[in-house]
Fold:
Amino acid sequence: MPSQTYLHTTDALAGQSIRLRARMWFPAVMLVVAFLVVGCQNDPDSAVPAADVAETVATQEPSASEAQPEPTAPPATRAQDPMVLPTAIPAPDNFQIPQGVPEDLATVWEVWALLNEQHVDRNDFDNDTFNEAAIRGLVEGTGDPHSGYVPPEAFEIENQDLYGSFEGIGARVEMRPDGKLLIVAPIKGSPAEAAGLKPGDLVLEVNGESIVGLSLLEAVNKIRGPKGSEVRLLVKHLTEASEVEIVVVRDTIPLDSVLVRSRPEDRFAHIRLSTFYANTAEELAEAIREAQANGAEGLILDVRDNPGGLLSSVIDVTSMFLEDGSLILYELDGEGDRDNHMARNAGEFSDIPLVVLANGYSASASEIVVGAIQDHGRAQVVGSTTFGKGSVNILRRLSNGGGLYMTIAKWYTPSGRLIEGNGVEPDHEVTSRDKQKADTSQFEKAVEVMEELVGGA
Structure:
């Protein structure tokens, strides 16, 4: 499968080992303490204040007549006795790290080999569990919330998201840096919307199982299921302190990305982009042509609650409104190499009066549209600061049938603004704690700005 570029929004073993040693040492330490206490009690006249004892130990010199015992090695069985403080045992003489193992991963291989050779339960170990634990540890070590391991059973989800339809609850989601699944927006008319899920909700459990800390695709895989089946979600609403359980009946969810919100007779076309699929640019162009044929004098392009999608799609969409050859964005990878993305087949709608609507759930690819159009002075942006997810991700297939979803670059707007962690600020900020009120007020402001552009009311 060709790789696509997407723009969406460890130490447990060591800790266990330390706790185990503490439990092993504790009886031995207590035994030594008990002997000391009993010795003191047997000779009450020999009691000495603690400070004096310390001084005596530090200053007393042995007499020349006293025989000095030769140091002796501990018994051979000492290190094997769990009731004695353990000493480090060197690796076996025949233990060698195989050729080809990177030096940085030598210790990882060493731990794996020792566990498989000497652990008491080694015959019960599952290699797949070891492999996945190691992979997750490596990915978590990056500290990147947008990278993650995708197990084999969840690998095909990304393809299902980009073409056709799927069976599930119908909600667009994003994984927060703290590992909690965020509902960006329920799809209009979906089971998620009917069940009461709202933008900003956090999904904490699926069917009684925590999904906090899972990768985005793993969490989505647990929520999806056959049409007609039920899924129980533990949800924390944005404006409520307590958590609630919501039961959603899954259904077939069509993947429509271009939604016309205006009527044919309206003065301004209002078109919403819910995401960026492979065919989004083509469908958007058709919708704009139809609106112009009906007499629309301007376009309100709405990318609110849009979590992102294909990079190639967002470039095609943005190109419609800019002159050919305009810079849309550029990427910087880990080596500092820059890759410019220019407008292509551009300019069909470069003259249409335009206003863009965006909000805090406009993420990734939708932020490219907002940033590019704003930087080129092509349109004014109304709403609130966008999400701030400015990383370029690819999904690589692994030999076990799973995949590695990883960040390969960060992108910048034409003027050099870094979106990751910052977002894009609107030209006209309109916000409200009430989601419905915010949506309405933002649209009304967009109409007001559009009327100023074209003149009249």
